[in-house]
Request: fold
Amino acid sequence: MSEPQEPLFRALHEEITKLYGDREQIASVLIRTRSGLRLHIDVPGWWRPEAEAKGPMRHGPGFRSVYANGVNYSFTKTQARVVARLWEAWENGTPDVPDELLCKTAGTTGERLADVFRECPAWGTLIVEGGSRGVHRLVASP
Reply:
């Protein structure tokens, strides 16, 4: 069964492939209207054609790298501690983890988890907001 966004994702995938070959993959789409409205669409794992072919989500030693939905993510040591905690919560069947606990796990003095993942491609794609305010989770299933 086709999802409503599939034609958009398919067309974008074809254009990206023409320009850059198979080495680039769409993670999200940002649309800006003339009036300034912004629409951000994350490309879900169910659509990504490479995700099904390349297997399930997995991690390397120490969580310094994670493969999910056809994308390889790399993490600093600090970020890897947070990813490990998120992974553990998912495996436990309780995927939402409070940001305060994740920041403590990272060993940072800052209060914002977003600061730990500044400029990291996994933020907003692999690591997303959970079911309530102030919690995050892994978007894909390990």
